[in-house]
Amino acid sequence: MDKTKNIEFLTLTSDIIVAYLSNNKLEAQEIPKLITEIHESLLLATATKPDINISESPKPAVNIKKSIKNECLVCLEDGKEFKSLKRHLMTHHQMTPEDYIAKWNLPKDYPMVAPAYSETRRALAVSIGLGKKTEKSKTKRKKIHMPGFTKSQNSEKV
């Protein structure tokens, strides 16, 4: 240990001892033991330790590849199965789908709805005619001429 570090530790030790003795009664023969214990504690607290990787990636509840099933999706946070993950993530884990994908390093196209459920909803939408263009929308809208109005007057009244 270099000289400046040793001086810092001695200064810290003396500051701690003074603070301790100002609030506690101690026999004179116990003071050297207290000084030694505090100094050793400071040395141990600042001793070089192997770096602990705090940013270690979390372990999912299930294997990521097995989290997508046809009938359900398995939440990587708690291992529960759902047809749709979005509401569960927000209510139980306070995460958006974007947060979830980023946390688990999932691909951007990771589904938030089970494939079978998505297909069922798609079939229902098609059966009631959603997503189809009607005959009206295929033909161009006719411009309606209103006498007494010019193009600039129509845009001002909007």
UniProtKB/TrEMBL annotation:
Query: A single Pfam family, by name?
Result: ROS_MUCR
Membrane-crossing ranges are none
GO biological process annotation, one example? regulation of DNA-templated transcription
Task: Enumerate the InterPro entries for this protein.
Answer: ROS/MUCR_sf, ROS_MUCR
Instruction: For the region Disordered, give the residue spans.
Output: 132-158
Q: Name one GO molecular function term.
A: DNA binding
**Which family is it part of?**
Belongs to the ros/MucR family.
Give the protein's recorded name: Transcriptional regulator
Species source reads Bartonella choladocola
